[in-house]
Amino acid sequence: MKTIANDGNRQRAFTQTGLRLGLYPSIKRLYQRAGLGNDTLGVKICSGATTGSLGAALANPIDLVRVRLQGEAGLLRNGVYATGLHAGHGPRHAHTLRAFVDIFQQEGLGGLWRGVSANVARASLLSSAQLTTYDQCKQVAVRAGWLDGPRLHLCSSCLSGFVAQIACMPADVVKTRVQCGAGLFQSSLQCAAYILREEGFRGFYRGFAPAAARQVPVMAVQMPIVEQIRRRLFGLSYM
């Protein structure tokens, strides 16, 4: 089951993450040509929000399957979970591709886009906060005399990951609960209202520490690699 969950992670990385990172420079230039501003903070925020929203909307079925497979993962013994939240029960889905079929058969086409509004909100907040912080941090540092190289990319990436997790955490909590609990909440707004009523504002930041502990290292590796691929293979700058 661990392998199945990893399949979902890889598919999400190639679709949602690839779109929001890869399209950012092009979308930013498009907004600049449209007269929205010359590399202003507003243009950066809008560019990140646009690529994040687009990637999340298109890849929602993949993200949904990933969340559900990870939510029920555990140690399997004789076809039954011996650990985890579903201990004593067998896997609901035989493999990743089967999960798409099962969800479609049980919940219809709309079931594959369950939680899409929260997913789009999360990705929009994540992408705009991450890419804007990364972009702005680099520009400020270069003006202050830093060399635009791997050290700057690493520092900017770590800061962007932390800021991004703060920005997207409420939507991340709502998205996960809506996608994991099929039928428990009718909408993302209903889920958000429930969390606020039952747990208070702090409920939206439940699990922040492990989420940030994942997000910051991911960004620390992700953005410098993206920079090197664009520069060394294609001769392009990222921002």
UniProtKB/TrEMBL annotation:
It comes from the Eukaryota. GO terms for cellular component: membrane. Its main location: membrane. Belongs to the mitochondrial carrier (TC 2.A.29) family. It is found in: Membrane. Coiled coil: none annotated. It is a multi-pass membrane protein. This is Mitochondrial uncoupling protein 2. The keyword Hydrolase does not apply. Solcar repeats lie at residues 39-140, 148-232. Pfam families: Mito_carr. Keywords: Membrane, Repeat, Transmembrane, Transmembrane helix, Transport. It comes from Symbiodinium microadriaticum (Dinoflagellate).
